[in-house]
Amino acid sequence: MRHTMMRYELTLTSMFRRAAEHYSNTEIVSRKPDKSLDRRTFGDFDRRARQLASALRKAGCKKGDRVATLMWNHYAHLEAYFGIPIAGCVLHTLNLRLHPDEIAFIATHAEDRFVIVDDVLWPLFDKVRAKAKFDKVIVLRLTSAPLPAGTIDYEDFLNSGDASDPLPDLVEDDPMGLCYTSGTTGKPKGVCYSHRSIALHSLGASLSDTLGLSRRDTILPVVPMFHANAWGIPFAAIMIGAKMVMPGPHLDGESLLELFEKEKVTLAAGVPTIWLGILQALDKEPKRWSLTRDMRMVVGGSAAPESVIRGLDKHGLRVIHAWGMTETAPLGSVSHLAPHMDDWAEDDKYAHRAKQGIASPFVELRAVSDAGVVPRDGKSPGELEVRGAWVAGSYVPPSDENATKWTQDGWFKTGDVVTIDGGGCIKITDRTKDLIKSGGEWISSIDLENLIMGHPAVKEAAVVAVPHPKWDERPLAVVVLKDGAIASEADLRAFVAAKVAKFQVPDAFVFEATIPKTSAGKFLKSELREKYKAHKLG
Ligand code: AMP
């Protein structure tokens, strides 16, 4: 027998239409660079996102064309999150933390046609556009700075569109978004999401036992909209009709706490570095802010330290620890206490919450070692592999990693090392990929090594992660100089700083006579990590 159900396309257009129909008075509050607040409604968002979609099509953007953003989290980025995909175009969020050359490489690889840029990011974009070509540059003016020559004002661009233009019919397999993530070997690689994957991800992320999002929530994504879709939160929040509070560029503990209090935020999401800043501010002045009781903090991007979970609990803030990747849209697993854990000892509960949790529905996880799939005994380590409804099946070609990151039987190899217990809960214990995560953003050790080895005085260089109390990890470079050559730490620092984003410059350069190697001649990074784990960083 064949099923008798309708074919209904799972698209952002469907989520978008519903939001305007049911939630037109729900608020969207954005904090501008000068810290003043901009207040709008879903009704405004609906009209303006439609105008954007219409303007893009009138300007010649066709189905599948890439439209990039270089923006902080605010109302206009939200308009782009929907306005671009509902026009049939692909939203490409450029990461403003990267070096301009890297952004230019990514925009060129993605063949971005148009770009929307915050005026406050113009100094960065000016360097990008020297190396990447865009058909149109649209500037959102958040300050009174004059419009740069040869660009279009965002408001003028919107006004060239007509909110009553019909939206194109899309199917769920149409592409809608593009995010690049650091390559382990060399260049960044792109993941292109379908409407279906993001529609299902929005449903999955909203479930009570995942992030538990509701129309009654006031949601503040601290996680940037240029990183892994801000964990899919903007899409899900529009779908369910939650009030949105967008923080703009001020992300320090006090600035965020002010906003949590003022807008009565019930759920915020960000990397551990952010929550550490908040915890320090709260520990210093516990009575200064009056926050929503049992406010939830989604923590991901790096492991949520148990001390942060405990610390925030003391202030009545409940951490929800989640694991995910750009390649998994990103939500993969979430850690919650199961009913049978209610009478566990407090310490055991905290230890459980610091694990990365169980797979969300429509996502499957397994751990694999050289001997095959490892038993779920909570002890045996293996590389975490994932498959599911919102997991990438390849990178945007061409990518060297398309041949190596997927298994023959269709699983994606995450590069994270885990143990999995009998309940299916994963615990990340290590990483096989040669990347360092600092404050939620990646640094490629291999790129740094190649760069440092390009210095005329350097014979060999290995870069490893050193634990850091604020940034989680920071890079340290172990350098062997050529016989008779001279270079100081300051020389090498200046050499690297000229080529990479500031946050990617190693905190320390240490000089050694040799670097330990594996039998295959590769740097023995585990030994270096162990040796330097307590190294005092600058
Ligand atoms: P990204 O693609 O930049 O979002 O980074 C994904 C990677 O971040 C994962 O493969 C992990 O290495 C790391 N990661 C994300 N969430 C967690 C977490 N909760 N605990 C430990 N590592 C995490």
- CATH architecture heading of the domain at 12-32 and 39-193: 3-Layer(aba) Sandwich
Global geometry: globular
Share of residues in helices:
25-40%
Total DSSP helices: 15
**The CATH homologous superfamily of the domain at 12-32 and 39-193:** ANL, N-terminal domain
Count every beta strand, where a strand is a DSSP E run of 2 or more residues.
26
Mean pLDDT: 96
- In what range is the share of β-strand residues? 25-35%
- What name does the CATH topology of the domain at 12-32 and 39-193 carry? Rossmann fold
Give unreliable regions as ranges: none
Secondary structure class reads alpha/beta
Q: Largest sheet, if any?
A: 9 strands, mixed
- The CATH class designation of the domain at 12-32 and 39-193 is Alpha Beta
Give the distance, in angstroms, between the N- and C-terminal Cα atoms.
69 Å
Taking all Cα atoms into account, the compactness measure Rg is 23 Å
The small molecules bound here are: adenosine monophosphate
Question: Which strand order do you get reading across the main beta sheet?
Answer: 2-1-11-10-12-13-14-15-16
